[in-house]
Amino acid sequence: MARMSVSVMPAAELPMLRSRRARVGDVLLAVALGALLVRSALLPMPHRAITAPPWLAVITAVAAAAAVASRRVAALTALVVAVVATVACQLMGVERDSFLAVALVGYIVAATRPPKVSAPAMACAGTLALIGFALTPLRFGDAPPDWWRTAATAAAALAVQAAGWALGLAVYRQRRYLAAVRRQAQEQLRAEKESSGRALAEERLRIARELHDIVAHAISVITVQAGVARHVAATRPDQAGQALAAIETTGRQGLHDMRQLLGVLRDASAETTSAPAPGLCDVAALCAGTQAAGIAVELSVRGTVRPLPAAIELSAYRIVQEALTNTVKHAATDHARVALQYGADELTVEVTDDGAGTAASETTPGGHGIVGMRERAALHGGTCTAGPLPLRGFRVAARIPVPAGDPAVGGPGLAA
User: Fold this and answer.
1) What is the pTM of this model?
2) CATH class for the domain made up of 280-401
3) What is the structure's pLDDT at 16?
4) Given 60, 134, 178, 291, which is the most exposed site by the fewest CB atoms within 10 A?
C-alpha cells in the first residue's frame, strides 16, 4: 500500500479523543494531579537553582495541572505550558512529580499530531528536563552532588515522557490505519457501484440497439409493402393480397423477435435460429446435464404447474442455468437444489448449494453472472437476489410476476 502523507488528524476521526466524557476525565485527572503537585510545591528540596516564594511554586504547579485539563482542546499549547511549569518547578527545588504532566500532555500530542510534529516537540521537552536536572543535581547535606542518582532520576523522568509519547504514537497510527481502511472500503464500494452501473448501462444500450434493428427492419418492410398494396389494390388485387400477407408475416416475425430478445439478448451462446427457446419444461434436462458434470441436482416443483408466457419461462430457465453454471465453477460441491414454485401471480425460482459460498464474478466468460440474472428478472418487473448462506453455501432466489390471462406464446410447463 502506498504511503500517505498526513499533516494533522481531522477532529472527525477522533471521537474518543475529543468527546465530552474524555474532557471530563481530563479535568478529574488534573484535579488529582494538581493536588499532588501543590503538595510537592509546599515541600521544597534543598537543591535548588533559584529561590522563589511558596505561592509562586503553587501557581506553577496549578499551571501544570491546568495544562493536563486542557490537553484535548489545545494540545501543543498545553505541552508548552506543562514543560515550562515542569522546568520552573525543577529549578525552584520542588519535587519532580510535575514531569508526569508532560507525559500526559505528550500522549495527546502524539495521538493527534503526526510524528514529524510530536517527536520534535517531545525532544525539546526532554532536553529542557535534562537542563533542569543538570542545574539542580541531587545532594545530601554538605556532600558533593550525587550525579549518578541525578542521572538515574533524570532517566526515569525521560522514560515516563517517552512512554507517554510512544503510547500516543501507537494510537495515532492505529487511527490512521483504520481511517485508511474505511476510505479504501468506501472507494471500493463506489468503484463496484460504478462498474455495476456501467455494465447495466451497456446492457441496456445493447438491448436498445437490438430493438432498434428489429423494429426498424419490420417497420421498413411493412411501409414498403403497404405502399405497394395501396397502389395496386384497384388494378391487381392478387398482388395487393400478397403485399398484405407480407405485412402480416413481417409483423408477426418482428413481435416474435422482440419476445426472443427480451429473454436471450445477453446470452452470448444463443443461436439465432428458429428453434423454440428453452422453457421450464427443459429444467429437468438441464439438471440432468449438470449431474453429468459431477453435481447431483435435486429438483422440486410446487404449486399448480401450467404454461407461462414464453419470455418468462425463458428468463427463469436462464436464471437456473446461470446459477448452476456458477455452482459448477465456484461452489466446490457435489450437490445443489433447484426449487420452482408456481404461485397465483408469480413464479419463484431458487437455486442453492452447500459449497464454499463464494459468489461468482459479476461478469463471467460466456454469461453475465449475477448482473445478468438480476436483469432477466427485472425485464419482467421481478427481483433476483444472490449471496452466501449464513453457515455454508450460496443461494440465488428470483421472483417473477406472472401476468393474468392466458399466455400469448407459452410452453408446456413442467411436469411435477
Assistant:
1) 0.43
2) alpha beta
3) 45
4) 178
